[in-house]
Design brief:
Largest sheet: 8 strands, parallel, barrel
Strand content: 5-15%
Number of domains: 1
Number of strands: 8
Number of helices: 11
CATH architecture: Alpha-Beta Barrel
Helix content: 40-55%
Strand order of the largest sheet: 1-2-3-4-5-6-7-8
Distance between the termini: 42 Å
CATH superfamily: Aldolase class I
Length: 253
């Protein structure tokens, strides 16, 4: 029998166990001004259109307390073993429902894996869900993504203490199903770079859900869209109503 979900998880996920998370933490590291200049307006729009949760850095969380409504909030953090306890304390003071970190298993440096171990231990003390974005990049951001490295990175994240894994799509439903089977915790597919093809985005999400994903954590292809509310509704239709790509696309017409 599956474990009962916590109150925090009930805010992050719907009763069907799925979630549409709008990732809005890009300004934390972006090298240019992004479309998140009016973040609260985007939060109000996506929550009103069916987003279940938002992923934000500390400053955006503090500024958004009046607009998130009943949506769940993931806090995007950078941490080290030395400050893991303080990171979790800060998250609890903010009142967020979960924490997200990144790991880089192919960087040649174990520091992010040590960070994962430390933050997972602290999150476990307080029942704070931990989502880990598994990034198979090497030194200086060298992209080492292959189906094998993406899958292996996700297993490293789940074995290291993640409650949920945020994963790159591997390109096709069969290989993504292998990733999900290999992972010991639920998987949310990430959105990736901004694309000009709405159908490609919707098709990727449809395929990921069919393979067993429990939702998405998507940013630029939602808040960077000309029709933010329409794209949110289209994705929510796939995730929660099992809509086809054609049916979901109607929300954008």
């Amino acid at each position: 029998m599956a474990k009962d979900r916590s109150l925090r998880e009930n805010r992050l996920f719907q009763a069907d166990g799925r979630a549409l998370v709008v990732a809005m933490d890009h300004a934390r590291r972006a090298e240019q001004v992004t479309g998140l200049i009016r973040a609260n307006e985007i939060i109000e729009t996506v929550v009103g259109a069916g987003a279940d949760a938002v992923l934000l850095p500390h400053g955006s969380v503090a500024a958004a307390t009046g607009v998130v409504g009943n949506a769940g909030v993931w806090l995007s953090v950078d941490t080290t073993p030395a400050i893991a306890a303080a990171t979790v304390e800060r998250a609890l003071r903010l009142g967020v429902d979960g924490i997200k970190i990144e790991i880089y298993p192919y960087s040649g440096d174990r520091v992010t894996l040590e960070n994962l171990s430390a933050i997972a231990s602290e999150c476990g003390k307080w029942g704070l869900p931990l989502m880990v974005e598994a990034v198979p990049f090497g030194w200086a951001g060298v992209d080492q993504r292959t189906t094998e490295t993406i899958t292996a990175s996700c297993r490293i994240a789940s074995d290291g203490g993640a409650d949920y894994v945020k994963a790159f799509y591997t390109g096709d439903p069969d290989s993504f199903r292998t990733l999900i089977d290999y992972c010991s915790v639920p998987v949310l597919v990430l959105g990736g770079p901004k694309t000009d093809s709405d159908r490609d985005v919707l098709t990727m999400v449809r395929n990921a859900m069919d393979a067993g994903a429990v939702g998405i954590t998507m940013g630029r292809n939602i808040w960077g869209h000309d029709n933010v509310a329409g794209m949110t509704r289209a994705l929510a239709a796939i995730i929660h109503d099992d809509a086809s790509v054609d049916a979901a696309y109607r929300h954008l017409e």
